[in-house]
């Protein structure tokens, strides 16, 4: 974690990496729940994971936009070359890997894709974002879209993005593609971070513990009420919960960042990319094994979700550790990279 002008050398904004670590952990857990549910081994986790939609992805996209404000002052082409180009490259590369590996995966819900060749499956991902990689697709679009609408007043940008989030998130319009729906739903939280990022980065580290706890409890109460009254489908509910979830995530991240024994969460937050693109294979492999011993594994159903979550994270980090120097695997090929000055360290933390 790098320091800021107002921070000690240890890194005042460590909470941002903690937030990313929390978000990516919940993403892996969510996917473990999805696929373990298919074979009846998700246990009580099946009821707990879904409602956290209003927490993990709003927080994930919010952290992605926290350091984008200065970058978005640059010309559109420069914004694309400095940020979106890398995301597009990684999306295309790992979608190709997925299209090949998909042919051998024993468990997956995309039955239509099972009839496609790897080439057609990859081409389809250009129009219909890949279910396991859509975050990269969305983020590449977000930087471009945020730069295009930058001349508009801030309130116009947020109202438009919020209205789209409400309409799509409430399923008023059925887009027929979950990644596109998510992409349209979460742009608001990226923009929220773009406009309020500097203020939040300055004030969040000083939040008192009791205020952080109060915000987290407030989010929990709102979520419980929404679930109890079945309000999640009501227009605007998910947007309100998402904003509350981001606030709760900030408070939780600040508290964890102050706990010496939990510093590993911030280390994970610095390495979200390999976990994001690789954990699917680990989780699906584990589910395939458990499916063969389902009767024996069923009494321990409460264990398998956290076990596969931990395995997905640790194996992904291990693979990244031995492959991080492979050219073009985790970044743009060197000849295509935009020359970035040394003063743009913060903006590199987006993935």
TrEMBL record:
Keywords: Cell membrane, Membrane, Transmembrane, Transmembrane helix. One of its GO terms (cellular component) is plasma membrane. The chain crosses the membrane at residues 21-45, 57-76, 88-107, 119-145, 152-173, 179-197, 209-227, 239-256, 276-295, 301-319. One of its GO terms (biological process) is enterobacterial common antigen biosynthetic process. It is a multi-pass membrane protein. One of its GO terms (molecular function) is O-acetyltransferase activity. It is found in: Cell membrane. Residues 14-319 form the Acyltransferase domain. InterPro entries: Acyl_transf_3_dom (IPR002656). The keyword Nucleotidyltransferase does not apply. The keyword Cell membrane applies. Belongs to the acyltransferase 3 family. This is Inner membrane protein YcfT. The gene is ycfT_1.
